[in-house]
Specification:
The protein is an alpha/beta fold. The chain contains 10 helices and 10 strands. It has helices at residues 13-25, 38-44, 74-87, 98-103, 120-129, 142-153, 170-176, 201-207, 215-224, 238-242; strands spanning 3-6, 49-53, 58-62, 65-68, 110-113, 134-139, 163-167, 182-187, 225-234, 256-262. Strand 3 and strand 4 form a beta hairpin.
Length: 264
């Protein structure tokens, strides 16, 4: 998808500056709005869709529809993790977060999310690792990386400041990364077997890389991790089986399975 970065119809000087910086950050073309209709801006720039950045929102406009970025349930999950950390007690059902439990995240951890998507798990991980930790999310789709990265920058929750979203192919990134440079490495590949998803998820499927996780990438991730690699799969867990991974115990009827592979 050829994406053009622009602003609302009547942007402030700060919004214009931030949009220019965002376009440079993700190597995308910037088109000044100039009071023009959005369709004219996109067409003149040779694009197919627009990322409209205001002070508060990152809106993807594609196929005649507007999609405001949101991490979905990620914000609620983040708040539950923060509340559990503040209380000093493990969260009890239904407030437990299977992802953070599977990842075994600790304060100060450095986390690599190889398939960031809309950034929900990256945001939850940032809450779990606390102020001394950091989360790097990789997304191979430039459009999805820009939408999520700029949305995360505009999210008014402190853990979002610890999340960096970068456009990168995870296989290439892992191959170049130093041994044991992250505490935990996470994969949440796009589920290849369709199931009911929240409204608006269809646009994510159109943007995201649908390639399955390669065994070679998993092997590199084990080298890069200090403790372990976590792989998520949708029920019934066929991709975990393909990789020879055994799911961790989960609640009956769970829609998500996790496997944890030790670092090498």
């Amino acid at each position: 998808m050829r994406l053009v970065v622009t602003t609302p119809l009547r942007p402030s000087a700060e919004e214009e500056r931030d949009a220019v910086l965002a376009a440079a950050r993700y190597d995308l073309p910037y088109a000044a709005r100039g009071g023009r209709a959005l369709t004219r801006v996109v067409a003149a720039a040779g694009g197919e869709a627009a990322l409209v950045l205001s002070a508060a929102r990152a809106v993807l406009v594609a196929g005649g529809a507007e999609h405001a970025w949101s991490p979905g349930m990620g914000v609620l999950r983040m708040k539950r993790v923060l509340a559990a950390r503040a209380s000093g007690r493990p969260a009890a059902p239904p407030d437990r977060d299977p992802f953070t439990e599977a990842a075994g995240l600790e304060p100060g951890d450095r986390v690599l999310d190889c398939t960031a998507g809309l950034g929900a798990d990256a945001l939850v991980a940032a809450a779990a690792v606390g102020p001394r930790g950091e989360v790097l999310g990789l997304e191979s789709s430039r459009a999805l990386a820009a939408w999520t990265g700029e949305g995360m920058r505009r999210l008014e929750h402190e853990p979002a400041r610890r999340v960096e979203i970068r456009c990168a192919d995870h296989a290439a990134f892992l191959a170049a990364a130093a041994d044991r440079s992250f505490d935990v490495v996470v994969f949440d590949p796009m589920f290849r077997h369709a199931r009911a998803e929240p409204g608006g998820f269809d646009v994510v499927r159109r943007l995201a890389d649908a390639r399955p996780l390669a065994p070679e990438a998993l092997a590199e991730a084990r080298r890069v991790a200090r403790r372990w690699v976590v792989v998520k799969d949708g029920a019934p867990g066929w991709d975990l089986a393909r990789l020879g991974l055994v799911p961790l115990p989960s609640a009956r009827g769970a829609h998500r399975y996790y496997a944890r592979v030790p670092a090498r």
